[in-house]
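Standup notes
- DV: blocked on the single-chain target, sequence here:
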Amino acid sequence: MEVMAKSMRRSNKSGQEEGLEGKYYHLYQNAIDGLFAVDHNGFIHDANKACERITGYSSQELENMHYSELLSAKEKRFIAHHFKMIINERLIPRSDIQIEIITKDRSTKMVELHIQNEFSQDGLIQASIRDITDKKRLEDRIIKAQRMECIGKLVNDVAHKFNDILTGILGSASYLRAWVRGDEECSRYVETIEKSASVGAELVSQLMVFGNRQESHSQLIDINEVIKEVISLLRNNHLSSRIEVDSQLQEGSPLAVRADKSQIMQAVMNICHNAKDAMPQGGKLTIVTESLALNEDFCLKHIGLRPGKYLHIQISDTGCGIEEKSLPYIFDPFFTTKDVGKGTGLGLSVAFGIIRAHHGTIDVKSQVGVGTSFDIYLPAASSKSAAVWAREDQMSLGEGRVMVVEDEELVRRMTSNILGRLGYRVLCAADGEEALELYKNNVEPIDLVILDMIMPKKDGLETFKELKEIDQNVRVVISTGYLPNRISSEFLKGGVVGFIQKPYTAIELSKLVKRVLA
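- DV (later): unblocked, structure below
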């Protein structure tokens, strides 16, 4: 490097030496890395073309510029310390240093700085820089994806346990309500229990959405219709009159995506609520939709995306903005910058979980005092349809023999009590092995098995397969807090007659059992 640098400064050469240094000069100028030297006072010399490309400054501008002019504020003290050690004690860093620089257009880049382990004959410190901005962004996204995956697994395990607890509370309260009918004071207490358990169930549901374990009901939906519904809800119930809503929806053919409509609405609503909270004094909320094609370069920077057609939803506000140090954590569960009691910290993490579960991603850009913009990307579909379903709200009596297979005693006892009160004869098993023994040794036929999916000894899938070996006509309802698509498809292929999601009420249980035994 020293020889190449010298060739830039020498002009009176002759013959073979001049030709050789001309070659070095060509190599120096066309190197991929930025090559340069720094004198004892910190001024730059001999910057090559790669330095121009990385920093945005010409070699003439870089010549005699102080190195500190290229550093961000947080890096200046750090590099000044190293520079002092190099000059005063001749201590060269043993490894490369990753630092942030400020380019001519005031944008930031991450570079890897390498300092030669000896001074040039001219007494200059020789160094090189390599642009690693894209590499660092990809590494950060991979680390974030891994962190979110770990958090999702932890959240999912906790949510599953809470589901069992809430199922016992909610089901027992529903059962108790029938016994205290006419007692106004007791009925109020039961109502309080039900409401509190329902709030807990909603919280668990949000956690499970983040953990990507919530069963979804996918259909072809028009994103523009979803956005219109969200805007209507916001205007009627949630937004201050001081907040202006501007929607710029792409016209023409429907922007169709295969998704769970209620979940997508929830994701968009959560982001809009975040925008609302960022504008307590009023402002502007803008929602834009469009279809676009994402190329390979874009997808490489977003873990899990593949090149192709996508729907883009941009939700931006003119609020207070988010500090740069907080941006990497805004999708983490329970992370919030709001005052205590003003939010759970789950809104954005739930939105992230929903979009990720639909094979999309969310980008966020923010500037303090200017506002924040969320960009949602979802894989596009090609058509639209609608689905309607209804839910009945009265308990149904019935008859028949039902076996409840559940490892949680509270849930097992509650389910058994409800079914018994509704007129069914009930057998209980605490795990898969006990269930198989009961089923094999029972003289009277068992009309229905309500089977928990996650149990010790034998899980729900193993138990279900062995029940089918005993009796091809066995009728099974799966009771669980979540159903990953891979497992639920195996159950469906095997002939499961129904699913019931924990936590469930006595009404939901009675309706399902009545339907599958009809």
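- Follow-up: The longest helix spans residues 133-179.
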